[in-house]
Design goal:
about 130 residues; mainly alpha; 2 strands; about 5% strand
């Protein structure tokens, strides 16, 4: 029994020691595949992911954040659901785009059977897409 307690004590260290170790150096040790995550690195990664999703789907920040939360901040999950189509993916995440509703309310004269490409900005008929 005493040996079990001694082994348990070998792995114990104070929380202050652990916190001091994290504050000193948050970069990965040489040759290691891991490092401590700080609030700054999490914020930077989230901002980068938000920017990627906003640019990819041409949506606002709060919509991109909702989509990332729906997919548990996995961009690969967003790429996978994008195969179903942009509108379907956003609808499944509970995101409603207001631009379509505002166009209908304003009585837009744009043809409803056309879609504008977000890359080349050419108009295509819905049948061609």
């Amino acid at each position: 029994m005493a040996s079990d307690e001694e082994e348990a004590c070998d792995y114990f260290y104070a929380e202050e020691d652990a916190a001091a170790g994290l504050e000193e150096d948050s970069s990965p040790p040489a040759g290691a595949d891991y490092w401590a995550i700080t609030q700054e690195t999490v914020s930077a990664a989230q901002k980068q992911d938000l920017s990627t999703v906003m640019n990819l789907l041409n949506i606002k920040q709060y919509q991109a954040r909702a989509l990332l939360i729906h997919h548990r901040w996995r961009i690969d999950g967003i790429y996978d659901s994008l195969d179903k189509g942009r509108e379907c993916m956003l609808r499944n995440a509970g995101i409603v785009l207001q631009e379509n509703n505002s166009m209908a309310a304003a009585g837009s004269t744009a043809a409803w059977g056309t879609v504008t490409c977000k890359v080349c900005f050419e108009d295509f008929s819905m049948g061609a897409v």
